[in-house]
Specification:
GO molecular function: mechanosensitive monoatomic ion channel activity
Family: Belongs to the TMC family.
Strand content: under 5%
Order of helices and strands: HHHHHHHEHEEHHHHHHHHHHEHHEHHHH
Oligomer: single chain
Number of strands: 5
Distance between the termini: 8 Å
Number of helices: 24
Main location: membrane
Shape: globular
Membrane topology: Multi-pass membrane protein
Helix content: 55-70%
Largest sheet: 3 strands, antiparallel
Structural class: mainly alpha
Subcellular location: Membrane
Length: 696
């Protein structure tokens, strides 16, 4: 037997740690502070050595606060001695450093208390914890995702209301000595500026109000809910001039940018958790078994909830390990069979997608050509007209309902892991739901831009059928939002609850074979991502649509919670939250990016309506930006034009690429260091006798 020398085993980790970037940075700081006066020597011994560690190399010059004793991996008695040593050090500090250290500790304590207070005020905090303990972290992640969308839509509503709606209402009603101005469009044919909303006049039946409420026509068409209400060029709030067209466009960019940044921030947090989980499966088991329990729990109910949550996590780990072993044991014949089956299933999926898209296109064209053609106004005619207006929404909802059911059925034969099964099903459903919205908008734009006469071409759009086409698109988004909520409510009331009743009280074999409804996370996530994409697209055409989305998701939370508790059973294959949270946000990010496309086309390419809206004096909505820049001083105009030129864009792009490559290389270096540290930790796990090299 040949033993490794003791000094070799102990020196290798030390030399390796000295190569870390953090250690080199500490040496540089120590060298820079070499001329300063040395601090008093701490008492040596166990406490003295750890007190020096608590100060660390950054503390050689006394520039930074000491490391808290509670963060050190030592016993409580040792932490008390370290705290006494750190407090004794304060007496020997000079100048304003004692006050700085004391105020920093006080501020940190106040911030922690405020953070704890806000955690108690968090929306649905108790409900989500109860769901986590009863049904696992996968379903809990769905309800947390729903809460995030409620907050996001509420903030978007506050933004649009304060920047667009409130100034318009104040100026139109003359509040605070305010006024507004309407500038007639120049070089525009007079027939393009005619817009007479068909409001209800005279005696109006109650069903007419219901029809208008569901379709966004009639009295709703003239309210601040839609784009056509904001036909103001300039608002004067006392002595302040308010450029409403510019504010409208900037508010649109603001809510899109806010959504993008917030989603990326949450995605990065989920991505970190996903990386930590995927790095070492053994570490995940150890964390759950030995460090997963919260010893602050004293309530028996809370303890039971935590116990169930850990049980579901371990069950998910074991299920994934079983499937990995099954995949590893496949023979070549089994691999050929499963790959051939997957190719056939993907062909079927492509055929389903093509059928959905064509059906939506034909339904939209038929609806636009045949609705609003009748002059009579009785209940039968209005009902038929309402059905025609809702025909695209019904076809889209039907496609959104049938296609995921087909995909969920087909995915069972592809033999994927539960986590990948969710991802693939979500991606297929994303193409159905989000592409359906794109097909609807494409069909509308084909009707809006169709011009067969010279008068129509002079306006740039079909002014006869769509005198205010932005409000028409807003009405379609409004109907999609309302109809989606009706379907969710109807499915819960008329499908889930009757199914629960039949399974509980009927012993027939077909009924018992169907069983209770499982809470399908992919379908439910796609429902809210689909609705949020509608909200992002429709907010430009209907500024108050985020308020409707906020109320809708607030009610959906309780609908889904009641349905989950009373009509659903725990999933047969539990779902992990660490990967689900990140992937949910990734799908939401895809929806936001797809929302950029129709909004960008509407703002930059399609001519704006000349009869309504804040951009009626401009050829396109984007034209308000160069028009505003022309009012700036000459020097500022030259700076902005220089930033927008190729001479600035190309070097900026190159510098950005260099910075990106630098951070990629730095991340790769840190990853290699982490891998080497893991190898060192593996060696530390074993007894030194096991680390001997045996040669026979």
């Amino acid at each position: 037997e040949v033993f490794l020398p003791e000094e070799t085993r102990s020196a290798a980790p030390v030399d390796f740690l000295q190569e870390l970037p953090s250690y080199q940075s500490a040496l540089r700081r120590r060298a820079a502070a070499g001329g300063t006066q040395e601090r008093r020597t701490a008492p040596r011994g166990s406490a003295g050595l750890r007190a020096a560690e608590a100060r660390g190399p950054e503390q050689e010059g006394g520039e930074l606060p000491a490391r808290p004793a509670r963060e050190l991996p030592v016993s409580m008695a040792e932490k008390r001695r370290l705290r006494d040593c750190q407090q004794a050090d304060i007496k020997y500090l000079s100048g304003w450093k004692p006050w700085k250290r004391t105020s920093s500790k006080s501020l940190k304590k106040v911030l922690n208390e405020v953070k704890e207070l806000f955690s108690y005020l968090e929306l649905w905090r108790h409900d989500i914890h109860s769901i986590e303990g009863e049904f696992g972290t996968g379903i809990q992640s769905y309800f947390s995702f729903l809460r995030f969308l409620v907050l996001l839509n509420f903030i978007i509503f506050i933004l649009m209301f304060s920047v667009v709606t409130l100034p318009s209402i104040i100026s139109k009603y003359g509040i605070f000595n305010s006024s507004f101005a309407k500038i007639p469009p120049k070089n525009i044919e007079p027939h393009c500026t005619v817009y007479k909303p068909s409001g209800n006049k005279g005696l109006v039946y109650f069903y007419t109000y219901l029809k208008d409420l569901f379709s966004g026509t009639g009295f709703l068409k003239e309210t601040s809910l839609f784009y056509g209400y904001y036909t103001i060029d300039t608002a004067w709030l006392s002595i302040l001039r308010y450029n409403l067209p510019l504010a409208y466009l900037l508010a649109t960019f603001a809510y899109l940018g806010l959504s993008l940044l917030w989603i990326i921030k949450r995605s990065v947090e989920g991505f970190k958790q996903n990386l930590v989980h995927d790095e070492d499966q053994f570490q995940s088991y150890c964390n759950k078994v030995f460090a997963g329990w919260d010893f602050c729990i004293t309530d028996p109910n809370a303890a039971q909830l935590k116990h169930r949550s850990l049980q579901y996590e371990l069950q998910t780990d074991l299920e994934e390990e079983r499937l990995k072993q099954k995949i590893a044991d496949r023979t070549m014949k089994e691999k050929l069979r499963i790959y051939s089956l997957r190719i056939l299933i993907n062909i079927i999926v492509f055929a389903v997608l093509s059928g959905c898209f064509y059906s939506i296109y034909r339904a939209t064209v038929f609806s636009q050509e045949n609705s609003n053609v009748s002059i009579r106004h009785d209940i039968r005619t209005d009902s038929v007209n309402l059905l025609l207006q809702y025909l695209p929404s019904m076809v889209i909802t039907l496609a959104n309902f049938i296609a995921p059911q087909i995909f969920s059925f087909l995915i069972r034969f592809e033999d994927y892991s539960p986590a990948f099964e969710i991802r693939l099903t979500l991606m297929r459903c994303v193409f159905v739901r989000l592409a359906n919205i794109g097909v609807l908008l494409f069909s509308l734009w084909s009707q809006i831009s169709y011009c067969a006469t010279d008068e129509c071409k002079a306006c740039g759009y079909n002014y006869e059928l769509y005198p205010c086409w932005e409000s028409a698109v807003g009405q379609e988004m409004y109907k999609l939002m309302i109809f989606d909520f009706i379907i969710i409510l109807a499915v819960t009331l008329f499908v889930d609850f009757p199914r629960k009743f039949l399974v509980t009280h009927c012993s027939c074999k077909p009924v018992q074979w169907c069983g209770l409804q499982e809470f399908g996370i992919p379908d439910n996530v796609l429902e809210i991502v689909y609705g949020q994409t509608i909200c992002w697209i429709g907010t430009f055409f209907s500024p108050l649509l985020p308020a409707i989305a906020t109320i809708k998701y607030f009610i959906i939370f309780y609908i889904k919670k009641i349905s989950l508790i009373h009509t659903c059973k725990p999933a047969a294959r539990p779902i992990r939250a660490s990967s689900s949270n990140f992937f949910f946000l990734l799908v939401l990010l895809i929806g936001l990016i797809l929302a950029f496309i129709p909004l960008g086309i509407s703002i930059t390419h399609i001519p704006s309506s000349k009869a309504c809206g804040p951009f009626r004096s401009f050829n396109t909505s984007w034209a308000v930006v160069p028009d505003t820049i022309l009012g700036f001083p000459t020097g500022l105009q030259q700076v902005l034009h220089g930033i927008a030129s190729e001479a600035f864009a190309v070097p900026f792009f190159m510098v950005t690429c260099l910075i990106m490559f630098y951070f990629i290389a730095l991340a790769g270096a840190h990853k290699r260091v982490v891998e080497q540290l893991r190898e060192q930790l593996v060696m530390v796990r074993f007894d030194p006798l096991v680390c001997t090299l045996k040669f026979s």
